Amino acid sequence: MMNEKVRELLNQQINKELYSAYLYLDFSNYFEDRGLDGFANWYYIQAQEERDHAMLFYRYLQNNNEKVTLEAIAKPDKELSCDMAVLKAGLEHEEYVTSLINDIYQAAYEVKDFRTMQFLDWFVKEQGEEETNANDLISKMELFGSDPKSLYMLNSELGARVYTAPSLVL
Ligand code: FEO
């Protein structure tokens, strides 16, 4: 039997990841309206990845014969006042998700739930990559965002991103 606190946090994470997907869809929608289709593509794929993350938590609980409870997904609540605000909201959100993963890891560690710790290792690495990506995007926007030609090229670069399924398979 899984520790109740660990189970509860894993279950909550399904909702948090689905919220992340919803939030990034909102970002994608913002950039679609702006006519920046590359940025829209980048966040659309990000939304798909977040849905994958939710499914991994869902599947992990089910594979361990633990009950899953699905809750309502909150409305995206970030203030999307300008392009940079969106990018910064993305970084802030990823840092928040990292703290959630760390909290689950801590709870698993305290009860010597090595299986859950091993499962979470993939997410620890993934969060590191996502924070790096979010930071890189902000840096590029700071450097090139004010020049239309450079913004066009950055938009083209982000438009080339393609979806790949997560490397973690359960
Ligand atoms: Fe699944 Fe980017 O957190």
Mean pLDDT score, rounded? 97
Helix and strand element order: HHHHH
* Radius of gyration, in angstroms, nearest whole number: 17 Å
CATH architecture: Up-down Bundle
Cofactors, ions, other ligands: MU-OXO-diiron
C-alpha geometry: elongated
- Structural class determined from secondary elements: mainly alpha
Total strands: the figure is 0
Extract low-pLDDT stretches.
none
Strand content: under 5%
Count of domains = 1
Brief summary of the model shown:
The protein contains 5 helices and no strands. The protein is an all-alpha fold.
Describe this structure in words.
The protein is mainly α. The protein has one domain (4-159): Ferritin, core subunit, four-helix bundle (Ferritin), CATH 1.20.1260.10. The protein contains 5 helices and no strands. The protein has helices at 4-34, 37-63, 83-110, 114-144, 148-159. Helix 1 runs antiparallel to helix 3 (83-110). The longest helix has 31 residues, at 4-34. It is elongated and about 55 Å long. The model has no long low-confidence stretch (mean pLDDT 97). Bound molecules: MU-OXO-diiron. The site of MU-OXO-diiron has 7 residues, from helix 1, helix 2 and helix 3.
Write the topology of this structure:
Layout: H1 4-34, H2 37-63, H3 83-110, H4 114-144, H5 148-159
Helix pairs in contact: 1-2, 1-3, 2-5, 3-4
This protein binds MU-OXO-diiron.
Keywords:
single chain, 170 residues, mainly alpha, Ferritin
